[in-house]
Backbone:
């Protein structure tokens, strides 16, 4: 089981379960956090660059984060975020899309002064056709070993 920083290796991979995004999910999130016509109104969305209703990128990122947390890449320990880099939305998420995330450990930086390190994991979101929908790099604090 992966619990500590020293258990992690570059190139380790993680795959999440799935989450299906409904029209109601898109409308509810948009109404509260990103109230723009292409997230709230199907007719108005047809006349935008999205050519139809699309989930907010922030909604996609939030779902991707939930899926990453559910993977539990650090066993019983939480993902303690130190930051997110290079957040990208490649294509819109549509009603009915089923998302999953795949993570890869891309960097491990041990602390020089503390018994911990930073693990950088690239999380990529895919839909049911395995088409990329988004990507984010999450830095997470990890203790080097059990604090006995």
Residues:
């Amino acid at each position: 089981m992966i619990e500590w920083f020293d258990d992690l290796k570059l190139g380790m991979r993680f795959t999440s379960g799935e989450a299906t995004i409904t029209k109601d999910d898109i409308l509810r999130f948009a109404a509260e956090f990103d109230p723009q016509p292409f997230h709230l109104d199907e007719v108005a969305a047809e006349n935008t660059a999205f050519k139809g209703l699309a989930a907010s990128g922030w909604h996609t990122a939030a779902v991707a984060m939930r899926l990453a947390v559910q993977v539990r890449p650090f066993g019983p320990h939480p993902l303690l975020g130190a930051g997110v880099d290079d957040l990208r939305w490649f294509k819109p998420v549509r009603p009915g899309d089923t998302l999953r995330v795949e993570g890869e450990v891309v960097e491990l930086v041990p602390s020089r002064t503390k018994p911990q390190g930073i693990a950088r994991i690239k999380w990529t979101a895919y839909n049911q056709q395995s088409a990329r929908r988004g990507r984010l790099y999450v830095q997470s604090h990890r203790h080097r070993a059990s604090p006995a």
